[in-house]
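TICKET: design request
STATUS: open
ATTACHED STRUCTURE:
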């Protein structure tokens, strides 16, 4: 057995990508320098540059859901970095198998469809080095959206489920407003007011701040 410190030390950087200014995030374990690359939606060269600047080694790619601005660079980076893609929930297959079509529709060029190496379910865990996240299935913005949360570190990556001052749209295929509100109120907020989160777009916030001030939740 190996001693692991009481507080895992992590590093994180947000890399805004695509015309949608999607927050691709790179989160790593400081002990091993192994990293998760979450939602690499595009601008692959820019992402690789950011990885190079941090000096970490990407261990796996995580996806929160199947929308093109979150997954457009995933297959190219999987091949370039030689790492697996994990997530989202299998209910996103209908989106991930049409990334090329959707990319063309939004003028995002030649994006590749995505076939994850591992689908994720509620309660699963993902791990890079000594850093792990629990998986919470949060449908509503899209049917297979997942959130990654580490309760000790008080950190969550929520994709487009929840934003600072807003919530994800539910008018896209497979979306449902009531389901989204249920996911947020019953599965995310109970995780703790002090959990800070990174959204797919815009600034960071905490569950507690949103529980009190988010107009869609109060
Ligand atoms: Zn989305
Ligand atoms: Zn998005």
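STATUS: resolved
RESOLUTION: sequence designed for all positions
ATTACHED SEQUENCE:
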């Amino acid at each position: 057995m190996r001693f692991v410190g009481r507080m895992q030390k992590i590093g994180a950087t947000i890399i805004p990508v695509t015309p949608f200014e999607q927050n691709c995030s790179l989160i790593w374990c400081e002990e091993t320098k192994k990293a998760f690359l979450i939602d690499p939606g595009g601008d692959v060269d820019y992402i690789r540059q950011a990885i190079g600047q941090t000096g970490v080694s990407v261990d796996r790619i995580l996806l929160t859901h199947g929308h093109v601005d979150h997954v457009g660079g995933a297959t190219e980076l999987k091949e370039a970095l030689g790492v697996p893609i994990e997530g989202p929930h299998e209910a996103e297959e209908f989106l991930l198998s049409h990334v090329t079509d959707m990319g063309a529709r939004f003028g995002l060029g030649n994006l590749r469809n995505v076939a994850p190496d591992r689908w994720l379910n509620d309660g699963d865990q993902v791990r890079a080095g000594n850093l792990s996240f629990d998986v919470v299935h949060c449908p509503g913005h899209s049917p297979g959206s997942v959130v990654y949360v580490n309760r000790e570190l008080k950190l969550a990556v929520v994709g487009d489920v929840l934003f600072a001052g807003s919530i994800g749209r539910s008018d896209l295929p497979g979306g449902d407003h009531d389901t989204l509100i249920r996911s947020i109120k019953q599965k995310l907020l109970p995780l703790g007011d002090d959990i800070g989160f990174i959204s797919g777009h815009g600034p960071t916030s905490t569950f507690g701040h949103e529980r009190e001030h988010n107009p869609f939740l109060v």
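CLOSING REMARK: The two ends are 47 Å apart (CA to CA). The chain has a mean pLDDT of 95.
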